[in-house]
Amino acid sequence: MGKIIKKNVITRKPGHLYYVDGKGNVCEAKMARGGKKKKKKVVKKKVVKKKPVKKKVVKKKKR
């Protein structure tokens, strides 16, 4: 586990990884994933209005 030498030296950005390299410099690398959360895409469904169907009334002829 590493030691905390000094706090609040750099301002951290979301989605970036910070580490100390072999020379003692603080380095910043963009993470492959992480940072801002993705927004869900809302797909609007097409509303199809059905027309009311009128039933035909067939009258029987009397004989």
Name some characteristics of this structure:
two-stranded antiparallel ribbon; mainly beta; 63 residues; rod-shaped; 16% strand
Helix fraction, binned, reads under 10%
List the quaternary state of the chains: single chain
Class from helix and strand fractions:
mainly beta
Tally of contiguous helical segments: 0
The average pLDDT is 79
Low-confidence stretches: none
Strand tally is: 2
Describe, in plain words, how this protein is organized in 3D:
Helices cover 0% and strands 16% of the residues. The chain is built from no helices and two strands. It has strands at 16-20, 26-30. The chain has a two-stranded antiparallel ribbon with strand order 1-2. The radius of gyration is 34 Å and the shape is rod-shaped. The termini are far apart.
SSE blueprint:
Layout: E1 16-20, E2 26-30
Antiparallel strand pairs: 1-2
Short description:
The chain is mainly β and 63 residues long.
